[in-house]
Specification:
- Keywords: Membrane, Transmembrane, Transmembrane helix.
- It comes from Novosphingobium pentaromativorans US6-1.
- This is Septum formation initiator.
- This protein is mainly alpha-helical.
- It has one domain.
- It is built from 3 helices and no strands.
- The longest helix is centred in the middle third of the chain and has 34 residues.
């Protein structure tokens, strides 16, 4: 028969081991990178991908306007639009209509 202090020590070690395993299991399920957070991370990833696609479209639109303003070959329509919009100029034969 074993003396009782060894049994108490073994039970303490087993109890601590069980507590550590339960804690690890809790982190697997509810931790910052656990199963519960995984669904939220997937939703955020899809949202960020949609935002990125929208930003790519906006970037392409802006890049097109920059290309049209190339100093060697300026698009006259865009130059006229920018002059009228930014400097509030108009030719004498043009009629300005404000649209609310």
């Amino acid at each position: 028969m074993r003396p009782e202090p060894n049994i108490a020590k073994e039970r303490l070690v087993q109890g601590l081991s069980l507590a550590v395993l339960l804690l690890m299991g809790a982190f697997v399920i509810a931790g910052p990178s656990g199963l519960i957070a995984w669904g939220e991370n997937q939703r955020l990833l899809e949202q960020r991908r949609a935002d990125l696609a929208q930003l790519k479209v906006e970037r392409a639109r802006i890049q097109n306007r920059v290309d049209l303003l190339d100093p060697r070959n300026v698009d006259p329509d865009l130059a006229g639009e920018l002059l009228r919009g930014n400097l509030n100029v108009a030719r004498s034969d043009e009629m300005v209509m404000l649209i609310p």
